[in-house]
Design a protein that fits this description.
Elements (H helix, E strand, L loop, with lengths): L6 H11 L22 E6 L1 H13 L12 H11 L2 E3 L22 E5 L2 E6 L2 H10 L14 E6 L2 E5 L3 E6 L3 E3 L2 H12 L6 H8 L8 E6 L4 E4 L4 E6 H9 L9 H8 L2 E7 L2 E7 L3 H9 L3
Parallel strand pairs: 1-9
Antiparallel strand pairs: 2-3, 3-6, 4-5, 5-8, 6-7, 7-13, 10-11, 11-12, 12-13
Helix pairs in contact: 7-8
Length: 295
């Protein structure tokens, strides 16, 4: 059985990935972009990009800041995890249109949902610039932004747990902040030297005001699948373990064997303004067949 313990981590991972600027939490506000679901687009990340980022952190002894005021995304995910509630039926969820896959009509899933959650901070530019400087950022926040209020909101999410598969649906994180603050944060983030040029060029071409959701596609890990009018991306725990095995600091991690043993794949796609995640110990074709049946 595909365990319930995967439900929230999958949804949390999707929320994080759809706003994934480089995996450097230092910029607290690194997730302060207003990506909203419109058209599905991707950011391509190579294994070399990941290796270079981790090597930079290791070579420069770059520490991840622990200031709780700056850890908006981790706090938001914790809040999402704590607010999960059971549903008696699909009709109980009204945040956005959601239906169960007809391909699984003979099964009755357990249903769970979480409402929108929000976390806010007031920008302390001196504190944030200290963290940015520690990361080598060439562009710091304008001091005029000190005291600016920023609120990050996670979207509602719904999950259906079947015996062998879990379906999750959500939208994307949104931000309530002045445009000049958002642009300044984005420019500062992109100036961090840990970001490989390949990734920096892709991110620089994206407006921080975009309404598109960008799915990160790691070369050699994600596999494309046609879902009839849209493209889905499949990720497997075995493939993830292979990629992690090539990164510094992960080769001897005992959790890699756990990933290999799970034998789970996750299919991610966007349809009708909704971001879907379908996961289970199934083949790509089996997951795709279930996904195509969703109206």
């Amino acid at each position: 059985m595909f365990k319930k313990r995967f439900v929230i981590p999958i949804i949390a991972a999707v929320i994080a990935c759809t706003v994934m600027i480089p995996p450097v939490r230092a910029a607290a506000v690194s997730v302060l972009s207003i990506f909203r679901v419109a058209d599905t687009k991707t950011i391509t990340i190579s294994v070399k990009d990941l290796q270079d980022m981790l090597a930079f952190v290791e070579d420069h002894n770059t520490a991840i800041p622990e200031d709780p005021e700056l850890q908006l995304l981790p706090r938001l995910i914790e809040k999402v995890e704590s607010e999960v509630r059971s549903l008696s039926g699909v009709s109980d969820f009204t945040a956005f249109p959601f239906s169960l896959p007809p391909a699984l009509k003979d099964e009755t899933p357990a249903l769970y949902a979480v409402g929108s959650q929000a976390e806010s901070i007031v920008l302390d530019t001196d504190k944030i610039n200290t963290e940015l400087s520690a990361l080598g950022a060439a562009v710091l926040l304008d001091s005029s932004l000190n005291g600016t209020a920023v609120t990050v909101s996670s979207p509602p999410a719904v999950m259906a747990e079947y015996d062998d598969v879990i379906l999750g649906a959500t939208q994307t994180i949104s931000i309530d902040a002045p445009e000049n603050a958002l642009n300044s944060i984005y420019k500062s983030l992109l100036s961090i030297p840990a970001i490989p040029d390949n990734l920096r060029a892709q991110l620089a071409a994206i407006s921080p005001k975009t309404r598109d959701v960008y799915l990160p596609v790691i070369e050699g890990l994600g596999r494309e699948t046609s879902l009839g009018g849209t493209t889905g991306y499949v990720y497997s725990t075995g493939g993830l373990a292979q990629v992690l095995d090539m990164l510094p600091g992960f080769a001897d991690d005992a959790s890699l064997q756990e990933l290999r043993d799970e034998n789970v794949s996750v299919l991610i796609w966007v349809k009708g303004g909704v971001l879907y995640v379908l996961g289970g110990a199934m083949s790509d074709s089996e997951l795709s067949q279930i996904a195509r049946s969703i109206r």
